Amino acid sequence: MSERLLVVSTDCHAGLHIADYKPYVESRYHEMLDLAVPVQLDMMSKASESFLIAEINEAWRAPIARQLTGAWDYAERTRMLAGDGIAAEIIFPDGITEYNTPPFGAGLGLSPRDAVPELQWAGAMAHNRWLAEFCANDPARHIGVASIPLLFDVQRAVEAVRWCVDNGLTSVMIPTLWEDHPPYHHTRYHPFWEACEELGVIVHFHSGPAPHPEYFGRDWPQEDNSEQLPGAMGIYVSEVMWWLYRPLTFMIWGGVFERFPRLKAVIVEGGTLYMLPPWLRLLDHNYHDVHFSAKLGDFRSHLSMAPSDYFRRNVAIGASCVPRADLELRGAFGPGQIMWGSDYPHPEGTWPRTGEYLRQTFAGFPEADGRRILGENAVAFYGLDRSRLQQVANEIGPEASLFN
Amino acid sequence: MSERLLVVSTDCHAGLHIADYKPYVESRYHEMLDLAVPVQLDMMSKASESFLIAEINEAWRAPIARQLTGAWDYAERTRMLAGDGIAAEIIFPDGITEYNTPPFGAGLGLSPRDAVPELQWAGAMAHNRWLAEFCANDPARHIGVASIPLLFDVQRAVEAVRWCVDNGLTSVMIPTLWEDHPPYHHTRYHPFWEACEELGVIVHFHSGPAPHPEYFGRDWPQEDNSEQLPGAMGIYVSEVMWWLYRPLTFMIWGGVFERFPRLKAVIVEGGTLYMLPPWLRLLDHNYHDVHFSAKLGDFRSHLSMAPSDYFRRNVAIGASCVPRADLELRGAFGPGQIMWGSDYPHPEGTWPRTGEYLRQTFAGFPEADGRRILGENAVAFYGLDRSRLQQVANEIGPEASLFN
After folding, report:
1. Which of A238, A242, A250 is opposite residue B235, by nearest beta carbon?
2. ipTM of this model?
3. Burial class (CB in 10 A: 0-12, 13-18, 19+), B155
């Protein structure tokens, strides 16, 4: 009998309801938390009128209320993972629909916009404490991604990374947008990259952040500007992946991967994969081209390889819910770069029908490539305990016959 | 004997040295002008230490000093156009290397960043007055693109457009970056699009603007931050075309071309053409896709066509100095969309060796397509006087044998 598939979801989410983080927040911030939580709940509620359409979500949530509690309930979560055949998962913050996000804006957006640095740090560390506990239930299966508000204080971020490692967390998420702070080519971040490289901590960028006020209006979500700003959502979904790639544009050209060659980074849930090859081709074009940029002087000498070489060596792609058409582009990437994800418990995820999705998407797909994308690439990239995970997979994993 | 080629350059530049604009600036701004010019000259000089490398430019300029005066000297300009075989040209501001840019930041960048609106308007109108005079030398051959600081005052922009038309200018350039102002999907700009559509005025976006302070540092160009911000130039050249496409992303999704179906726009000197098809595919993907964005509600109903349909109907591409490899992508665009440009008198242009460039680039290229790209598309898009221009071409235009 052939071994069952070892499936790893590189895009899952978990978190408490915002109010339930209180025990994990340092007590000196409790007064601010009590003030902030109702404000943040109100904002999320108003946002759900236009961004995550409330009616759609209500209809979607009603029959799966219990399954959604897996965002924080460990027993329910393992039941959900078993149902989807998932042996291990990478866990980002924010269940979204249940308002389960860390306080003070320390969740998936992790935006420095309008943030009070001290409070965002408090919210991030509250989530990280809870996450470390949650993953400790079975560290081989649950890889938590800690929230690190890097922009405010690089030295503090280095200390936070050390705290993470000491507490079993070896993946971190940093802001995708830097707003008015220096971007990631700035050498001020070198101590952070150095610590991550030294400690084997993987840096994550998760799709979602974008300059929402540009699209939806400066007062969004407090006011409904949709009459004055038609098409805002179309613009958002058309631009959001560019904002996800952007940190890598800065890191690659900034020589971060040249200087820290073992540093690993991931971009997650960037939507369709077909924008990545043209973006890489453009970076390389500007590395190799000389005529049109001659007036700009030599801006390549600090890089020993072409930009796409760093991308292939140092970066992996979290290809959540990837459709078959995108899988056919795999030749444009390194064989170890594409990693599947279920996006549990988000509405656009493959769960709780991952089995059905897998059969539809991978039928007739080459098994060796399929095994890599569905799990083996993540095992290698994150350095997971393969033998332990194969034991789990042998109980809950999908049959290899799905490739037939 | 076959007719000579009618060549139109859709990307040329002209302008006075910044100090020489004084006679065209309203006298009430002269005091401010006297204060501003030395500051702007100093900034440009410092910028040339890092952005337009001074040494490179000195070496480049020395043997062509006279040719560069065609940026403002009409006789020299017509001599240059004749040498390049160019019958007509679209004229943007800024010769750059001779510091010939309109005052108060009203030139090619036309950035609202750090601008005093009243002064930028004064600088823009000074350039527009000079440009109208310059083009009046031979209006069939010289199509000036007026500078319109639209973001500050939409009603004033409408009046400026009417002034332009009254003075023979039917092309305008508006800011590519809006900084803290509302983007182009905002309905506040409708009166401007309406005036342009009604008067047949074509809206231009010229490549170049980008968030330079992010790349080069907030104090750039006053301080040299290159040690702290390695790779800044590589990031800039890799991102600049995205900032050029961005206004169209907002206009298309904002329904501007849906509401003003005869409005015409151009993007100019966006570098390689191969990023355009993936960008259009992405816009269309987000128009047709339903599953992954179901949670966002219906954001397409205000558009009767897919985004790429508006792009093909309303937008032309100024493909300055286009290489042969990019021409092979022409099937991805409408047959009338691609328009060649020489970029005279910028350092990266094909001049003064356009003849050599044309023979190298178009040898063996289908003549019908070549004629369209090199001139006929611009004639149709801008509604130029074809018979008059063919007369000019018959004297100075290249031989059709270059396609052999």
Report:
1. A250
2. 0.94
3. exposed
